[in-house]
Amino acid sequence: MKQSVRPISIAVAALGGQGGGVLAQWIVDMAESNGYRAQYTSVPGVAQRTGATIYFVELFPESAITESGRTPILALMPAPGDVDIVVAAELMEAGRAITRGIVSPDLTTLIASDHRVYAISEKEIMGDGRADDDRVREAAKTAAKRLVLFDMDAAAEATGSVISSILFGALAGSEALPFPRSAYEDVIKHTGKAVATNLAGFARGYDGAQASLPAKPVTVSAQPTVTDARIAALPQPVQAIASEGVKRLVDYQDRAYADLYLDRVESVVAAAGSRDDSHRLSVEAARYLALWMGFEDVIRVADLKTRPDRMDRIRQEVRAKSDQIFYVVEFFHPRFEEFCDTLPAPLGRAVLKSKFWRKVTAPLFAEGRNIQTAKLSGFVPLFFLARLRFMRRWSLRFHHENAMIEAWLDRLITTAQTDYDVAAELAELPRLIKGYGDTHERGIARYNQIVALLPLSAGDVRNLREAALKDEEGQAFAAALQALPQVVLPPPAAPTTTAATAKVA
Amino acid sequence: MAERSFKEEVKKLQLGDGAEFRGEGILAVTKALLQSGVAYVGGYQGAPISHLMDVLADAEPILLDLGVHFEASASEAAAGAMLAASVNYPLRGAVTWKSTVGTNVASDALANVASGGVLGGALIIIGEDYGEGSSIMQERSHAFAMKSQIWLLDPRPELESIVRSVEMGFQLSEASNTPVMLELRIRACHLYGRFQAKDNRRPDYTLKQAMENPTRDVSRIVLPPYNYLHEKEKLENRWPAAIKFLKDNKINEFLGGTTGDVGIIVQGGIYNTLIRALELQGLANSFGETDIPIYVMNCTYPLVPDEVTAFCVDKKSVLIVEEGQPDFIEQAINTILRKADIQTKVIGKDVLPMIGEYTSEVIRKGVKSFLESHAPSTIAAATPIMHSPADAGNLLQALPPRGPGFCTGCPERPVFTAIKLVERELGQHHVSCDIGCHLFSINAPFNIGNTTMGYGLGWAGAAAFNVKADKKAIAIMGDGGFWHNGLTSGVGNAVFNKNDNVLVIVDNNYSAATGGQDILSSRANNENRSTKHPIVEAVKGVGVKWVKSVKTYDLKRMKSTLMDALTSTDSGPKVIIAQSECMLNRQRREKPLTAAAIKKGERVVRERFFVDSDTCTGDHACIRLSGCPSLTIKDNPNPLKRDPVAYVDNSCVGCGHCGEVAHAAVLCPSFSRVEVVFNPTTGDRIANKIRRGVIGFLQKFTSKTAAA
What we know:
Chain A is an alpha/beta fold.
């Protein structure tokens, strides 16, 4: 057996619909018109429907075939320790390639897009279920012989092309294959499809690889310059949150409301006292207080929907041209409860209780409404609804929320004096209260359930809070409630090993 | 219209003698069929042979030209039964399907055709869906070959070898009067490669000739006494004839070295993987040259005892590389050697895993372990050339699993949103699922479904729950499954047995999961098929009284119809036909039209959804009720908030489900539909100017008062 030329192995890891097949076909076409024999295969099947899948290409020089008079036996799947180039169209898929063993530190060029397409398991979580991207970035740094990692999704967006052309460009730019840049470009030109945008994408990808652009820069949020003397007097770690809170609450209501916020923050800081050297309690309290005080009522929603800058944001996000006309249809489903919430508290309470009013107004709230905020019929009513801000402090909703906020603050302040850790956990408890309608009610119910169980240990509060955010149906939360040590059980007796030992003996 | 068009590629089917063919495995198979003078082809789609059906459909003009009839069969059973044409007439025929599931469905017909035997060559091309990327139970088609005495070819995964197997398969079938299976693994079906083409051949004998000159041989019919005769024929005539043919034509290959104490016996289909494994271990080169003798079984059933004994007799031990379980080949080789009193040790599943796909890494480890015990000097002399893979540590735990799911804008999603919403009011129900895209409901975020019993068997899978109870059972079935057999096994069965339960038929105009092939109820014009036969008529035709058709995207109606069906006190089956065109196919159809209309200057409104990150509170209830890939998450722009906000990315096709969900579930006021106008009319422009003027005035007015 003689040693022979080895094939070049290329694995393309992508999600169904990302164009991994197109990229593989481009590679095949390029290789075949440049003196190489190509073999290509994939396992699309059901994975084609958004799942993770691998396309596999092997290239073998025609010259070696002519010379030996034999045809090479090419593989149909990437083998660990034998893949020259791995192309990953998404960050986690690069990670998956590493775990499959097909990235070797002394062999493989890893070309990966530093962007995320979140899996359903990450998206459906009620809090933040996103996987830790940095672990994959860290692993990629040492896993490959050469790493090309930059956000190719953004590059595709910027050039109006698709990620496969960026990846193809990055492959060219990595110079991992023995073909000149023009060979790649010829393939794109020959397809005759979207040539201009694909070439623009290709060029961006090529430059990205040539520059070996660093992975996503770590964003360091600039410390705001604090001009407000009251904020400046707060402990330094609280300042950023507090100034953001003040800014948002002025925007939400008025300066007086923001001042009330600062009063409350100061009282928590004072209560936390010297035990708060990590400032965890005051930072989290300042965060959730600002969010809670800026609760999303009907007035707020109407306000946000009629802001002048909103249309610009939409224009940008939907990629409409600067002069292009577009309409926005809002999906609202106001309920009787929200209507009562907006009324002055005594009136709201009375109407809420009244069966008559509920019945009379029922047709108004039975259906969801589609409101055209770019047309006057929709914009004008919302605009005037937003102007009701001046009477927010008298609304039923405000009374409810304010009472709960005060109860929470009181509890924080008293608990801070006896058990700092519990208070710090309680400071984050309002994270449970979010959303609208049923979602909001469910959050409040779980919040109240935890509060009713106090006193609890800091660990218990944290476990319950995290469990409450796990699933909508409340299975994790129910399990966490079950697991609470109602009665401290005696430690279980040590297992009797005598029988086993006897047998062995 | 299928998901992938092969209109361009099928031109390669006309290549003549000596030309080089380059293309995918399934295209090569089609070419090989035409080179073999096939008279008829049929089959049922399903990965990995969906594309073979698509190629055949797209090649229909070429097939017609050659006098070849192509049938898009109603099911694998229908395709299998088609081979009956080769029983009495010297007609070559080929059928294809996904295996083992399709072979399960076809086995009635296959057993019959195998019993009576064939006169013309009968070839069954099976796409073996085993290992990575598979969507079915992990079984072997090998067992079907054994039980019915059908020969099983398993060619080396390169186009030359596959094409030769097709041609030899027909000859083998005719020489032994037995149908022949040609097994192609998933990667081989999608393999791009090349081979030397030959001229296409018109069938020697045509279907027309057969129909006009019918012949009959009662001894070919499976009825006593001939069924007994068939068993005798199989063993005494057909089997020996097959063995002789295999030997004479050298179907199996003796490759690699010729001397040594050890050898390897491998299924043809995994030969390339074995060579790569040997290469990495330093025991072969890229041309497959190796000192180790290798017996490649391009036919894995029946075995050729003489070849096996000849290969083993001078060896101390052999390694059997046989994927899947049970280890039929290993057992058979042991029997052959034992009977011949040959003492060669047979090693197989002791060093290779009993289950799972044989990847190059799996085989490399197995071969290494085998050689270490049985040829230590060979392994010691070899220098492995593989590099060490990066240490992934526990990175795997950090990676979210990414299984298949509903596509962006999929019209099936609202069906399951509706079920989820109904269950909030009526409690959880038993849900019997079927095969098709709709089976993705079993995963997050819907988590709906208890069992799936096979294609079209969604309702039959709930048949036992036909007793009085406070809740009804729900069954799901796709239009593909419905026409495959669900009309009888599900709907007819429920009518006859006076079932009160609920069936939801997902009618999306195509056999969507297999690649968007047309079916009876497709709404598109198809010049070669008769379409537009509504499911509702069929359902009523077998006697269902309670039938309602609903557009799936109308979530409110979808929900209320489900509520009606589940709470109805009427007796008899309730059938809901949930209709909306498969979005993947719709986009493929409409996108070019829309682009052309915009180019032509016509007024076009393009819709997509948008989530206001200001009002989104990051609870993700919308995602749990929709699951659309385009509805995703991003960093919260509010620095105070930790949880990511929902976000609609640019893949959104504006199906409208998000808005319906926001309404039906009373979710939140964050969803908007944005309607972007292309080529606005003068009316548009004037209205827009007025609107923007008034809105701008009001906004300016407030910002002034706020500043003051």
